[in-house]
Structures are given as structure tokens and as C-alpha cells.
Amino acid sequence: MATALPSHAQDAPVLRVTAKAPAKGLTGATIEMHLEVMTTTWFLQPPELPKLDLPGVMVTPPAGHGELVRDEQDGLALNGLRYTYLISAESAGAIQIPALSVTARLGPGGAPTTAESAPLSIEITGESGPAKIVGDLTVTQAFELAPDPMVQGGRITRSVTQRADGVQPMLLPPAPLEDVANFKRYPREPEVVTLTDGRGGFVGGQRIDRADYVAEEAGRFTLPPLTLHWTDGGSGVPQSRTLPGREVNIQAAPKAAPPFSLQEDLAKLRHGLRWSLPAWVMPTLIGMALMLLILWLGRTWWMRLGRSVAAAGRRGKARWLASEPHYWLEWRREARAGQPVLSACYRWIRRISGEVALRPAMASLEEQDRLLAENALRQIYGTGEHKADWRARLAARSRVWRKAWRIHKRSGQALPDELNPVNQRRDARKGRS
Predict the structure, then answer these.
(1) Of 115, 82, 109, 102, nearest in space to 4 by CA
(2) How far apart are CA 290 and CA 381, in angstroms?
(3) Is the dihedral of CA 399, 405, 411, 416 positive or negative?
(4) What pTM was estimated for this model as a whole?
(5) pLDDT tens track of the chain, all 433 residues?
(6) In sequence order, what are the beta bridge partners of 101?
(7) CB of 126 within 8 A of CB of 27?
(8) Calpha distance 274→14 (Å, rounded)
(9) CB 332: neighbour CB atoms within 10 A?
(10) How many CA atoms lie within 13 A of 275 on its CB side?
(11) Domains (ranges, CATH) in the chain?
(12) Which of 77, 152, 159, 184 has a CB 3.0–4.6 Å from the CB of 253, allowing a cystine?
């Protein structure tokens, strides 16, 4: 056992790191080295454990959470965590474990604190050879037949399971699943598992070796017994265990008649290969390939063309929405709708004549048109009894107004001064002034 000295003053949190391991061990055995990280306060985060690399030695780092421990040293009450490293050496000699540095954040300040353990030395004795087992070794085997009963071409799976306490699984010897006459062997990857107590504590190791044996012939054959050899780690006495073999009866595989004639099908396939392409196929394919190549090379131009066409479409739509025919159609729909409004009619009048009201727009037309407009306005906004036929008369007469306003616009004729609504508004302002 080795304990590091305190790394802080007495009035500051104390961190102590202690490495503990047996002074002696055997080759092939698993030695547990405990690393205790203790403090007078508490850990804000789990300690940062060092990595332990030893030449020629198998080292398994701690797995799972550390074990809670408490102790009192030099009059200080300490608490902390115990971590376990598994060490296995395959040859005799001294294992030198250097000082292990651990960093932890301690409460309440949380500043990083580092402490080291003292170096350790473990003397390994014994001889190299068959793996040494510490604790009980249990060996079992199983056979699986597919199908059962076996037929020629079927498979027998033979599995050997070894379970040992206190031994790392990588140190368990492989089962001698060798070739067998009249069978084709297919070995599988071994399953190596570390056994724990459910809380991360090391218990032992387990190794499962499997091999598939495929029957190549029909008959009665025997899978031979297997013998495993090891050395007991406590007494050093060689041990062995023989697993019994198994005799199997391989039946001949049934010959099922095919549901179709293979020769006839092959003949039909060969006959179907005698065909020729029409003369126009190759030029068509070449032309399509060239067209696709041109489209791909000119994709930038096609994209610009698409954007130009879309922009032209938007401009054309905007011109249509602002044109006199569009407003004329909107007025015709409004006239058929039956609502007592003239919204679309006013928009159409302003677009074709430039006036914003019905009376000024009628100034250039005949007397009967002006009377019709006045009568329509009175029936819309007045209290007259006959309000149903004004829209039909106005819609019918607006065709004549449209022709007249178009003629005025093409000829460029101005309205007479006494009928020009602009002059009328100017004269009205002069009269008020």
C-alpha cells in the first residue's frame, strides 16, 4: 500500500490518492489494484483517472462508478471513491507501477486539485505455459442440429462455454474445435465477456467458442471429444477436462424433381437473344443524347430565358389589369351582379374618359345620356320606387358611351369650354373668391 502526502495546507480542501495491491502474484492470475481518491470535502465532478500502461502486462481500467469509501488519516475524516484496475501478467518478474496522478475539482471553490499516489511493485512468480486459473472454472458444451434429424448439407453447431472466477476473459484458453472428417468446419468469432456483480465490480470472465460443421456425406459419423488443459492458480497443479463427443446419423438429402425443365428454359432464353434493333433506333438515341447535352450545356441561358419569359408574363398581366378592356369587363360583371353600387363603373369611366365622377364624364355626350345618368344617380342614392331597371339601362347605354369616348380619344378633340368640367370647377372657385 502507498499513500500520497497532502497537497494543500490544513485550512484548504485535502486530496489524497492511495494505490493498494498485493505484493505478490502468479503468472496468468488477475490482480486487483485499488486506487482510492479521498478528500475532506466533496467532489464537484468525478475525478480524472490516469491511464495505466505496463509493457507485457494486460491492464483493464476501472469500469462503472467507483465504490464509496470512508477513512480517517492524521486526524482528518476522509471520504471518497475506490476504483479497481485489473492487472494480469503472462510472465514472471517484477511489475513496476509508477505514481498515478489524479485531478479533481473539490468543493466549495471548485479549483482543480492534483495529487499522486506512491509507486508500487508487484512480484510475479510462476512459469509461462497453459493459462493459470484463480478460482473455480466451469466448462460446458452444447450441440445444435439444423435440421434435426440431420441430412446431407445440414449443420451441427458445437459450442464450448468456459466461466472462471477472478480471471479476465482474454486469459481463458480457446477451445480446441478442430477439423472433423466428413464435415466442413466454419469457425465463429469467440464471445468474450467480463462478468461483474451488477455495480461494476469484477467477478470473472466467460468465453464461448463455436464452430459450425456442415455434413458433406450421408452416413453415421462421430464428433470427437474435446480436452481442455489449464493450471490451477492456487495449487499450481495442471488440470484438464474432457468433453464427450457425439454420434450423428446423416441421412441422404432428398432429390426433388424440378417443377420445370431447365434445358427447355435455357433453350428459350437462347432463342430470345436472337433479335436485332431497327435502323432508326441508334440515330434516335444519338439525337436524344445530343439534345440532352445541348440542354445541359446551355442551362444558364435557358434559366435566363425562363426568368425573362416570367418577367414578360408579369408585365403583360400588369398591363392587362391596367387596361380599359379589363375595367370594361369588371363593369359588365358588376352590372349583372345585382348590387346597388357603381364601383367598377366609376373605375371604367375614369380609365376611358379620365373623369372621376359620372356627371363630368357625361358632359361631352348627348342630352339623353346626361338625363339617363342623372336618373340613375337619383335611383341609386335617392328614395325612388323604381330602382330595379336603372342598372340594365345604364349597362346597355354604356356601350354607346364607350364608342363615343374612344372616338374622342382617337381624334384628340377637346371638350367645349362650357362643357369641360375642369373649367367649370375653375369658374366656381372664381365665383367664391
Answers:
(1) 115
(2) 71
(3) positive
(4) 0.50
(5) 545 444 444 467 899 999 999 999 888 778 899 999 999 999 999 999 999 999 989 898 887 678 899 999 888 899 999 999 999 888 889 999 999 999 999 988 888 999 999 999 999 887 765 566 766 789 999 999 989 889 999 999 999 999 988 888 888 889 999 999 999 999 999 999 988 877 767 888 899 999 999 999 999 999 999 999 887 766 778 888 999 999 999 998 877 666 666 667 666 665 555 556 688 888 899 999 999 988 888 888 888 888 999 999 998 988 888 888 888 888 888 877 766 677 888 888 888 887 777 777 777 777 777 787 777 777 766 655 445 566 777 777 888 888 888 887 776 554 444 444 444 444 544 444 3
(6) 116
(7) yes
(8) 92
(9) 16
(10) 8
(11) 2-125 (2.60.40.740), 132-250 (2.60.40), 324-424 (no CATH)
(12) 152
Which pairs from 355-363 meet CB under 8 Å and 24+ separation?
355/421, 359/421, 360/421, 360/424, 361/401, 361/405, 362/401, 363/415, 363/419, 363/420, 363/421
Of 361, 404, 356, whose CA–CA distance to 372 is shortest? 361
Whats the size of the chain, residue-wise?
433
Q: Is the dihedral of CA 423, 424, 429, 431 positive or negative?
A: positive
* Grid cell listed for 295: 440542354
Q: Quote helix, strand, coil % in the chain, to nearest 5.
A: 30, 35, 35
CB 50 within 8 A of CB 148: no
